[in-house]
Structures are given as structure tokens and as C-alpha cells.
Amino acid sequence: MPDDMARPLIRERAGGSRHLEASMLEPSTLVIGILGTGDFSRSLARRLVASGYQVVVGSRTPARSAALFPEESEVTSQMEAANQADLVFVAVYPEHHSTLVQLKPALAGKTLVDVSNGLQIKQEGPSNAQQLADLFPESYVVKGFNTISAWTLQAGPRDGSRQVFLCSDDQNAKSSVMQLCRRMGFIPVDMGLLSSSLEIENLPLYLFPSWRTPIICALALFVFFYLYNSVRDVLYPYVTSKKNNLYKLPIEIVNVTFPCVALVMLALVYLPGLIAAFLQLWWGTKYNRFPNWLDHWLIQRKQFGLCSFLCAVLHAIYSLCLPMRKSARFQLINKAFEQVQTGRPDSWVEEEVWRMELYLSVGIMALGLLSLLAVTSLPSVANTVNWREFTFVQSTLGYCALSMATLHTLIFGWNRAFLSAQYHFYMPPTFLLVLILPLAVLLGRLALFLPCVGHRLRQIRRGWEKSRHIRFILPDDDCRNGLENVSNVSMHVDAASRPARCTSAAAISLGGISPRPLTYSDVKCQMFLLLFFFLPL
Ligand code: NAP
């Protein structure tokens, strides 16, 4: 065995620069060098050896690190590794790149893969890879593998992200690394020129960028409704009748707060699509850019929807746990005693029974539909359905979920909105506040169902413009389900902000394009929009 270890695994090669062609990348003929012997280097060496490559590792102190590497690889000095390798991974921190300059002649003409990450998100370059390219102008620098952790490399691509983002100014060098990537079981993603390296280096540093607004929104709503409910249900009884309801704070108040947040967040999923549709109707064109805030909102609907789903699930779990509490048991026993004492043992109230049955049934349906939306928003599931199926689930079933959740709240409120005793400190009951936004969204959606509005919107989504030359009449059977595109609400993609996709075979026929003055239908549509916006005011 010691003899085997001593035997050089990498055969001697002629020195000089070799610029790899993709076709040369046969694992058995290729020597891959790795500079650095840290965590990343060790995992990479294992993966490369497992993929059939010859690996030579360059270290400042080879004797110290050799035992940590697979025995099929060779650990040697940096210079020796640079000389032997055809393609070199630079697995040292970027602040130490400059210590490798003495390897410049040995690395000339070779491909260098920079795997380094930055410490913080940078908006402006130069990136680590660009700096490395400046240090080694005679080498071909490829940025990549920095989004793959040492753990993923070691465990294999099945246990972690499989995509490897690559960029380089040299197409051949990039192709070589892409091929190597595939052989290792990863999926290379071509990100273009080395100028994209800043973006690639920033990728692992982002902390849920698209989740920030939805989470802040959900937290703000939670704090608002929690305080609102506490004032009504804890402070009010204490001030008016010295009743101590503080025990309600951990469970009961939280349980009534979660559905408030869930319903408002769900309405916020559908609101931007409606705003987009009404803006397009107002402008009479789809070619105006939406304001930035609306663009961002449209893009983040999936996250809004998932936050809503989380709150709905927590509400369901809290509700199931309500009867387990000691306070609930004491209240039940007290009520039973009270009824025995007053001689009214029959506590059956028909109206209450029906209210609760309906309330629970509709709530369960709303949660079921929300679960379906959440599951379909997973990329792996979304990829298995076509555009029409996806739109059906996210838009049609999504609106069903919103309607069910609104109905759930309406039944919860029942006739209590009309009881003056419900207006503690002149504050309306929480369910009344919560209903404003979902009802507005549902009404807006109904408005888009009106033929004059829906038809105009379909035309606009197909390129019709009020003030320009592109005017045409849609054939009756044009869009099978045009309204699905009206406010194409999804937890997954930004559909409303891009041109509507009509799967119908009917396209805009040139013969149909007809410049024409403002018609009765235009006027009707604009009058309706005016009424819709200004009547509530
Ligand atoms: P590490 O464990 O600290 O290893 C860095 C290696 O750099 C050392 O073992 C050292 O090996 C070598 N080195 C060469 N010149 C050096 C110098 N002047 N001073 C200090 N060390 C020097 O780091 P790592 O986790 O392997 O990360 C290496 C690179 O991979 C970094 O750029 C990192 O951003 C990137 N990366 C890491 C991961 C990960 O999961 N760890 C993931 C993606 C990207 P010798 O002493 O043998 O020369």
C-alpha cells in the first residue's frame, strides 16, 4: 500500500500552455488542478475523482494536507499542480489570490475556475473573478461553482442544488467547464460574459430578497390586528367591568389574529392583478409600463400567497387546540352549572348550531383550496402542468379560495356587525375591518366579468390601443377564457404584468385591424370605470 501511495498518480506532461477544447474533456485524459486544500477543495477533489478525473491538488504545505484527500488524487506543491493541470480550480479566498502570482507562467493559457464568494453583496464591480482575470491576463477565467456548497459537492448533486451558474469571456473555456460540470452530475447554466460574475457572486449572499416585503407586510398586519384584538377583548372588559382576560393573549387573541392576516394577505395576492387590469383599461393600452411598486407587487404574489397559507394553517391548528385549554374546560363546566342552577338544561340554539356548521365547513374548504394553490406554486409541480391548467388553479381556484375565506369570515360575523355592543371603544369588530379588502377585490373581479369591460380588456391584452393605430375586432371565439388572463392571479408567476397569453388559434387577422373613432362600447367602458372608482367615494 505505501508503494501505491508513493507512486505518482498523474503522469508527467509536457509543460507549456494548453487551451482546452471542449472535445478534449475526456475524464481519463484530463488533469484537473485545485489550488488550496480547504473544505471546498477536499469536497471538489472527491467529486472529481468519483467522476473519473485525475486530480492534482496544489498546497503551500502538501505534507500536512495529503491525508485528507482521496488516495486517487495527488497532493503536491502549488507550482507542481499548476504545471501538471489542464484546468485549475482556484479554491482559495479572494484576498489570497495575489499570493498565487508566482504561478502566472505555469497557468498561462489555461482555464482558471474562480469559486470564491464575496463577504457582502456588491452593487458595483470589479468582482473577485474580474480581479483574478486582471492578475492572470494570460489565463482564461471562468466564474462558477461558488453557489454549490462543499457539502453538496461531497454528498453529490442529488442532495442539494444541481444548477451551476457559469460565466466567462472565453467561450471555449466556458464550454470546457460546462462539460466538466455535466460529467460531475450538475446542470451548468450559462450566464454569459465575465461581467455577470458580480451577480453570480452575490447569489449566495441574498437573504430571501423576494420575501422581504411579504414578510414585513404579514408582520405589520399581525402586530396591528393583535393590538386591535387585545384592546377590544382584553383591555375593554378590564376597563368597563374589571374583568381580567389576560389569559386570552397567548392563544385566543393569536387565533383570531391569524385569520385576519391570512385573509388580508390573500386579498393582497389578487389586488395587484386587478389594479393592473384597471390601469390597462384606463390607459387603453397594454404597452404603458406599470409603476415600479406594482411590478414588484405582481412579482411577489406567490410569497404573499404562501404567507397567507401559513397563517391559515396556524389558525386551523390553534382552533383545533382551543378545547384542550384549561380555561375552555372551566368555562364549559361553569356554563353547565349555571344552566343546572337556572333550570335550563337544554342549551341547544338552532341558529348557533347552523352558524358554526357552515362556518367550519366553508373554512375547511378555503384551507383545502389554499393548500392546493400552495402545492401548485412549487416549481416541481408547476412544471408538470400546462399554462391553462396553471392559470385555472391559480386564478379560478384562487378566487374560489378567496370567496370561501370571505364567506368564512362573513358567517363568523353573522349579524354581529349590526349589534352596537360589538363596537367596543367605538372600534368596529375586527371581522368587519378584515372584510373590506377581500370584498373590494371580489367586486373588482365581478366588474371585469361585465361583457363591455371584459371584452375591451381582452382586446387590449391582444394589442388593441385606444389612442394609436392598432385597433381590431376580436372574433367571438377568440379567447377561450380571456378573463382568466384579466387579472392572472397566481402564487407563482408574474402573469398579469406580461402580455396575456391566449391559447386560441385565432390570431389578430390583418383584415380585422380597422382604425375607427371612439365607439359606444368605449364610452360605456370608460363610464363604467369612472362609476366604479368614484361611486364608493
Ligand atoms: P478554507 O477551508 O479556509 O481553505 C482555503 C485554502 O486556501 C487553505 O486551505 C489554503 O490551503 C489555501 N491558501 C492558499 N493560499 C493561501 C493564503 N495565502 N492564505 C491562506 N490560505 C491559503 O476555505 P474553503 O471553505 O475551502 O473556501 C475556499 C474558496 O471556496 C473560497 O473562496 C470560498 O468562497 C469558496 N467556496 C467555498 C464554499 C464552501 O462550502 N466552503 C462554497 C462555495 C465557494 P493550503 O494551506 O494547503 O495552501
UniProtKB/TrEMBL annotation:
Q: Name one GO molecular function term.
A: metal ion binding
Coarsely, its chief localization is membrane
Q: How would you describe this protein's topology in the membrane?
A: Multi-pass membrane protein
Keyword Membrane set for record: yes
The record's Gene Ontology biological-process terms are: copper ion import; iron ion transport
Tell me the compartments it is located in: Endosome membrane
Transmembrane portions of the chain: 205-228, 256-283, 304-325, 358-378, 390-411, 431-453
Report the sequence similarity comment from the record: Belongs to the STEAP family.
The protein here is known as STEAP3 metalloreductase
- Tell me what organism the protein belongs to: Oreochromis niloticus
Q: What is the lineage of its organism?
A: Eukaryota, Metazoa, Chordata, Craniata, Vertebrata
Q: Which gene encodes it?
A: STEAP3
